[in-house]
Design a protein that fits this description.
81 residues; 31% strand; alpha+beta; 3-stranded antiparallel β-sheet; elongated
């Protein structure tokens, strides 16, 4: 399941969003300037889209490498797709 965590650093006026999956860990992250609600929601949408793309690639690679052993190999294959 894909989750997006948003953190705000008020001193730097930055927000960071990280998309992660329980199986593969962190899939995508991005930091932007600004701390408003519009900036947060736009960043969340973007990082969720990137995370879903990465998760899809990893799932395709996992299907191709179903017999292979490790998640690390699957992640490397997913990055190549």
């Amino acid at each position: 399941m894909l989750t997006v965590k948003i953190t705000t650093h008020h001193g730097r006026r930055e927000i960071t969003a990280v998309a992660s999956d329980s199986r593969y860990g962190d899939l995508a992250s991005e930091t932007r300037t600004g701390t408003g609600s519009r900036a947060k929601s736009a960043l969340e949408v973007e990082v969720r889209r990137l995370g879903e793309q990465q998760l899809s690639a990893l799932n395709r690679a996992g299907a191709v490498q179903a017999a292979a052993g490790s998640i690390t190999e699957t992640r490397l294959i997913g990055q190549r797709l």
